Amino acid sequence: MTTDDLLARHRAVLPSWMPLYYQEPIEIVSGAGCRVTDAQGRTYLDFFGGVLTTMIGYDIPEIREAVERQLRTGVVHTSTLYLIRQQVELAEKVARLSGIPDPRVFFTNSGTEANEAALLVATNHRRSHQILAVRNSYHGRSYAAMGITGHRSWSASALNPLQVSWLHSGDRLRGLLSRLDPEQHVEAAVDDLREVLATQTSGDVAALIAEPIQGVGGFVHAPDGLLGAWKKVLDETGILLISDEVQTGWGRTGEHFWGYQAHDVVPDLLTFAKGIGNGFALAGVVGRAEVLNEVHATSFSTYGGNPVSTAAGNAVIDYLLDHDLQANAARVGAILGDGLRAAVTDRGIVGDVRGKGLMLAVEFVQPGSREPNTAATVAVFEECRRGGLLVGKGGLYGNVLRMGPPLTLTEDEAREGLAILVDAITKVDGA
């Protein structure tokens, strides 16, 4: 069977709104470490990791063996109506690492479900369906999660079960606050929050949900300290802070284990997903007991925290900590980030190079302006693939390349990927 055959079959049975990367889509059939191989036998260095999900890399013996041990018991699923040792052990680790006092953990299958759970307990706790969200954000594809997504291309419906008020994003290239220095930016954002509360809400808001670094939004992030400054205002009336750490968690930013830790704040609720399962369906929310216990009916997730996924999750956290991958993200991310800034910031099509650790982005613009350059983005994206490098796309205007390699990326692999990236940008800029 050829890839063309598989593509035709895909189009015949799957929805038209499911995107496929590349002009000639690829089927990934094997992987090891930070590399994958497609059905044609071509091997690529993977700088996107299944959308920042394959966080430890491919075919990691410790994770494979943990899953195989569980499979050998014959128990793949019991539901959470029974005690699950792997689930309890993983919850203990997540609770300890969260930094949240007196924490409780609820497991789900995806980041979307984790954010839905956070919204459920926050609105119950506050007896309000009013939510503060941030422009350019992305929180998932379900009904309520889509309602708090401030990104039009991902908002498939205008219907919304929540009353949402929007705060300015941290976009420092073309956002309304972009011309301000970091201190002024934080001050203006706090003023914006106070005005929104006074003019667009009845005061009894349930929560503010924010990504420390906006994922789908193109790795846009506000100055450090903003979430903490917002939290001081929220605390005046008891409004909760939800930190969406689906993409920023587990040490990916290098400088911190969680994105919120750059902001001198501790959230009331924290959602996590993606990397914790390293490809297995695993996500959840951790929060203060008095908030997370606010479900006054029978509720559970049938598959959330199942024995196989939590076996993988336990192995992922153990590997992550044993190998200090946060420090590796800082060290190797600096090679990649500093190298990009030195090599391409003077290119006419490059508007910005940003990010932290192994969460990096390049935004493309029309030369001499801040106008988005989607055509250049697509051209560089395809050129990277031809050079043997897989990257992601994103941004409000689809003009951002996103890179979230496995946290096991080596210095040599970082330099290899950097060379491919720089070559691709140079070729497109000179075309």
Structural write-up:
This is alanine--glyoxylate transaminase. This protein is globular. The protein has helices spanning 3-13, 49-52, 61-72, 85-98, 111-126, 143-147, 182-200, 226-235, 289-292, 307-322, 325-344, 374-386, 411-429, and strands at residues 28-32, 35-38, 43-46, 103-108, 130-134, 163-167, 207-210, 240-244, 269-272, 283-288, 350-356, 359-364, 389-390, 392-394, 400-403. The model has no long low-confidence stretch (mean pLDDT 96). The protein has 431 residues and is α/β, with parallel strands linked by helices. Helix 3 (61-72) packs antiparallel against helix 10 and helix 11 runs parallel beside helix 13 (411-429). The chain has 13 helices and 15 strands. The strands form three sheets. Strands 4-10-9-8-7-5-6 form a seven-stranded mixed β-sheet, with helices on both faces.
Q: Gist?
A:
The chain has 431 residues and is α/β, with parallel strands linked by helices. It has helices at residues 3-13, 49-52, 61-72, 85-98, 111-126, 143-147, 182-200, 226-235, 289-292, 307-322, 325-344, 374-386, 411-429; strands spanning 28-32, 35-38, 43-46, 103-108, 130-134, 163-167, 207-210, 240-244, 269-272, 283-288, 350-356, 359-364, 389-390, 392-394, 400-403. Helix content is 38%, strand content 16%.
